[in-house]
Structure formats: C-alpha cells, structure tokens
Automatic annotation (TrEMBL):
GO terms for molecular function: pyrroline-5-carboxylate reductase activity. This is Pyrroline-5-carboxylate reductase 3. Belongs to the pyrroline-5-carboxylate reductase family. Keywords: Amino-acid biosynthesis, NADP, Oxidoreductase, Proline biosynthesis. NADP(+) binds at A45, T46, K47, P48. Oxidoreductase that catalyzes the last step in proline biosynthesis, which corresponds to the reduction of pyrroline-5-carboxylate (P5C) to L-proline using NAD(P)H. Proline is synthesized from either glutamate or ornithine; both are converted to P5C, and then to proline via pyrroline-5-carboxylate reductases (PYCRs). PYCR3 is exclusively linked to the biosynthesis of proline from ornithine. Residues 156-244 form the Pyrroline-5-carboxylate reductase dimerisation domain. One of its GO terms (biological process) is L-proline biosynthetic process. Pathway: Amino-acid biosynthesis; L-proline biosynthesis; L-proline from L-glutamate 5-semialdehyde: step 1/1.
Length: 249
C-alpha cells in the first residue's frame, strides 16, 4: 500500500506475465526504454540468464536520477555496475517466498553510487518486511542468504522438508494428516517468533524445552544420530557455493 498502482509501470515478455499487474491497476510499458523514461525506481526481476540482455537494452536509457534494484539471484553488484553506466545507483535485495504473505525477510546491499538516501527509500518501501542492510558492495555472506533465513528456493525447501517430516512422523503415530501438517506449521511459526522476539540463541531456547529424561531430549538424540545439524550446514554451504558459481557464469 505504499505506492498507488497507477504509479507503477511493468514490462514483461508476454501479456500473460503482465496480466497480474494489470489486474492490480498497474500500467504496462511498451518496451523497457519506455518503462525507464517514465520511472525513477526500477526493479529488475528476471531469471539470471535473462538479465544481461535486459541490462543491455536499458543501459542507453539509464540516467542519473534512476535507482536500479536487482532481485536476481547469483548476479553481483559488481556485475550490475559493469553492465550499466558506472555511475548508476544500484541496490541488490534478496527476498524470499514468505514475502507473499508479508512474513518474509530480505537482505540488501548497495553499490558505490547508492547512498543512505537510496537505502532509506528502499527500506521505507519494503517496511512491511524485515529488511537487513548488508552494507556497501555486497559482503560475501550475502551469498549465504538464500539458505539462511527461510528464503529463496534452497532454504525454503529445507524448512518445508523438515515440516513435512514432522507431519509425517505424527501421521505415522496415528494423527490425521491435515491436523499434523497444521500443527507442524504452527510449531515452526512459534519457534521463529520466539527466536525473533526473545533474541535468545537457538541453543538456549532448545535447552529450555528439554526436560531431563523427557520426550524432547530423546527426540533430539535421534536427530543428533542422524547428523541433522551437519547436514543442514552442508546444505547451506552447497547453496552458497552454487550462488558463487552462478555469479562467475
């Protein structure tokens, strides 16, 4: 609700892609050059292999007043600056799927020409989501973000897989499937809320719910035997390395 739909222009490769924007009241731009001519803040949301062609097309139309924000995975600030005029104000954000229900989180970084004013504008526009500034140039740990918060495909898949396993375990023990899925989801939601609102380390909260000799510590023993933590850490590392490889490509 920060921006009226009438103030938004969208461009997409087909009418089918644009339909959602038109339904919301946004306008369609006939070509990328026209879109930039009528805009100040430009969001790039493409597949990584498509982005170079898009940047080549918009480069002649980019002017000093434009702010370019990339949502594209695996494309660094440095690459964006190289493919756009060197003085372009560039920011990069990594959103995640729960943003669809206003429960996501984002990390963003900025290029050398983007300052506090541009960062504040972006944070204000995205104020319904937690946004975490990542500094200038995009620190190396920004590559890990797709896997650390419940985020873009790799980590969301990990969280969903864990939720599925929790629910299926309950089903195995006799709980109806729909109820098991709901309880698993609510459990994850409550755990996340506790982490965010208490600021406690996960290990502290985990210890708080482990009664000596109780059911929880017996369950955790099984997870430790299955090397859950090492497996998840390996998954984060694998996703991060793949993101770096994509940037090199």
């Amino acid at each position: 609700g920060k921006v009226p739909p009438s103030n938004i222009l969208a461009s997409a490769p087909s009418d089918k892609n644009l339909e959602g924007w038109r339904v919301s009241g946004a306008g369609g731009a006939d070509g990328l050059g026209v879109l930039l001519w009528g805009s100040t803040l430009v969001f790039l949301a493409t597949k990584p292999h498509v982005l170079p062609g898009v940047l080549e097309e918009i480069r002649p139309a980019v002017e000093s007043h434009h702010i370019v924000v990339s949502l594209v995975a695996g494309v660094t600030i440095q690459t964006l600056q190289r493919l756009l005029p060197p003085w372009t104000k560039v920011l990069r954000i990594m959103p995640n799927l729960p943003c669809v229900v206003q429960a996501g989180a984002m990390v963003f970084s900025r290029g050398p020409s983007a300052g506090d004013e541009e960062s504040s504008l972006l944070q204000d526009l995205l104020s319904c989501f937690p946004t975490c500034p990542g500094g200038s140039g995009g620190p190396s740990w920004l590559w890990a973000h797709p896997s650390v918060p419940p985020s873009v495909p790799p980590s969301l898949a990990q969280v969903y897989l864990f939720a599925e396993a929790l629910a299926e375990g309950a089903v195995k023990m006799g709980m109806p499937g729909a109820l098991a899925s709901r309880i698993a989801a609510q459990t994850l939601l409550g755990a996340a809320k506790m982490l965010l609102e208490t600021g406690e380390h996960p290990a502290k909260l985990r210890g708080d719910v482990c009664t000596p000799g109780g059911t929880t510590i017996h369950a955790l023993h099984q997870l430790e035997k299955g090397a859950l933590r090492a497996t998840v850490m390996n998954a984060v590392e694998a996703a991060t390395k793949r993101a770096c490889d994509m940037a090199k490509d």
